[in-house]
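RECORD TYPE: protein structure
NAME: Lactadherin-like
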Amino acid sequence: MFYVCAVATQGINWRHIIEYVTNYKVMYSKDDIQWTTYNESGVEKNFPGNVGNRKAVTNSITNPFKAKFVRILPTGYVSHKTMRVDFKGLPSACTSSLGLENSQIPDNQITSHSSSDDYHTAPRGRLYGNSSWCSSNTSNSEYIQVDLGQIKTVTGIATQGDKALDKWVTSYKVRYSFDNRYWNEYKEGQFSKVFVGNTNRKDVIVQWLSRPIAARYVRILPQAWHNGTCVRFDLYGCDIVNLPKAAVDIPQVVLSTPKSPKTIACGILGEPTPDLQWFNDGTKINGATQSTLQVQFTSTEDVASKYNCTRQDPNTRAAVCNTFYTCRATYPNYVASGGIDESSVKVTVNLNVPQAPFVTAVPFQRYIRLSWILPNPTVKEGAISGCLIELNNQSSIMTISAGHQASPFTLTNLKPYTNYDVRMSVKNMVGQGLWSKYLHIKTTIAGNT
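PREDICTED:
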């Protein structure tokens, strides 16, 4: 027995004969005796078929059905009713507990928007548990959430009310996500599905999804309730997921010149054709849904503010800046148990922190006047944003920030006739630059100027 989620058809496999089915209906049965014609909204569905012999056409089943036997009834054809056919779906045994009731899912993977008190936190919302989860507010935005640990197929939802209190949820919505950032609302057709909940606190009500979903994160959002939003729940399904395939054409790109874009490409495979979306360091790039993406940087400041820049050796100027572009293939929402696949490109820009400045110093009785010449920034450095001065009098070290255009700069409140070591570095958006050599200076004796 299987849940049938899609039908794929082709015409005859002969080069010089043109024969294929242009339209068809689907019938299904559990026992080969009682047959049902697949329908949507009470109307028998007439599926579009092929337009030639070779290319396969896949039609998704909006409301997957459970069957052991399936018939294809051609309703239109070219030359003869000739076809090749395949079915896509899930085993009907995909109805096991996903780990809430039996505590295979740990407490830290069950969370909520809020909780009414310490006895009604999210981990207490397990089916048949000794309490329940109760929200602190009666709002349609409240939810209890479970992290399944990996992407799995969800086929059903079981709910109960509180163990002791006459509080239960009478209706709810379901949202699901692959990454806990971007969420989908479960729909039937074009409309959000409102599931029927409980009528008392004890009985378990199971709602089987007409379209199984693939998800790692699932939220239950109470929409109506009796006396309070309290619920215990479990999810049913299996580890089998209908996954597409995504693959970028190159694992790493190095950008060396500002405003010189490079193109990265992503190939996706799946039936039906998956949706494609590009992300940058986990954030969706709006409008980036094509198979190619141009990447570039406009300036050192642009890279330093958006990339992750690190220096392997503080005694060298080199800084390696990386960001990741990810191509995500996702089946459309109408595909049963449609999962995701991702492939990433590391984009690297090699930058530098500034060179050490040239520094001179003139001592006085209680102050030292510093002057400096800054290094000329290159395209890999960008503008200088400030200076750092280190003053060491053998007993303590003081660091002083100064504007990069503050030369000459006066170090005040010093002791007369005292040895000081002074050095300086400048910084840019990439980081703190190299230090200049120490200047060994002694302030003048009292009475000198």
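COMMENT: The first strand starts at residue 2 and ends at 10.
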